[in-house]
Amino acid sequence: MKTKNRCTWCLKDDMYIAYHDTEWGRPLHDDQKLFEFLILESFQAGLSWWIVLRKRENFRKAFAHFDAKKIARFDEKKIEALMQDVGIVRNRLKIVSAINNAKVFLKIQKEFGSFDAYVWSFTKGKTIRNCPKDISKLTNKTPLSDQMSKDMGKRGFTFRGSTICYAFMQAVGIVDDHVSTCFRAKKK
């Protein structure tokens, strides 16, 4: 049986391969899933995505399945409970940021009609396909992620730097960075 060629970053384990094969780089337009990735990417800051992905189910439980309305109402008691939850990344600043970002997310939904309309407006609804020759050609931020980060900051988002925005854009398919030899790569 022939093995599929994949981006080498995902070969660590079966969970990572499944994420690569079924999610990463695929255009996503569901507001709740977009919010999930935004929150998970912010928790990933300073860590590896593999660590956060491994804890994803725990994050879903701890953060009300990424229901922004519920998260926006989290109080100090809930923050303290999350700080005790060994199943997630226990970082007070990131937890408080998730609550803040839920509130901003809800405002953006009202302003744009959906969070999907907002984040995809940066590329006019089109996926940017880079198709690099190898993983060493991947970048961790671009002028577009700088632009998204700056706009998100003006709107009140926290933990939304350019690197986080770029990883988010890759995760939700706004940017497709599958290497050219990967079976998931789509040519430009």
Describe this protein's structure.
- With 188 residues, the chain is mostly helical.
- It has helices at residues 14-22, 31-44, 49-54, 56-62, 68-71, 76-83, 92-112, 115-120, 143-155, 162-171; strands at residues 128-129, 175-176.
- Helices cover 52% and strands 2% of the residues.
- The chain has a two-stranded parallel ribbon with strand order 1-2.
- The longest helix is centred in the middle third of the chain and has 21 residues, at 92-112.
- Which geometry do the CA atoms define? globular
Question: In total, how many domains does the architecture comprise?
Answer: 1
> What is the level-2 CATH architecture name?
Orthogonal Bundle
Sequence of secondary-structure elements = HHHHHHHHEHHE
What CATH first level would be assigned? Mainly Alpha
**Secondary structure tally: strands:** 2
Could you tell me the CATH topology label: Endonuclease III, domain 1
- Count of alpha and pi helical runs: 10
Largest sheet: 2 strands, parallel
Q: Give the spatial strand order of the biggest sheet.
A: 1-2
Mean pLDDT: 95
Distance between the termini: 29 Å
Task: Indicate the proportion of strand residues.
Answer: under 5%
Output the CATH homologous superfamily: Hypothetical protein, domain 2
Characteristic key phrases:
Endonuclease III, domain 1; 52% helix; single chain; 10 helices; two-stranded parallel ribbon; 188 residues; mainly alpha; 2% strand
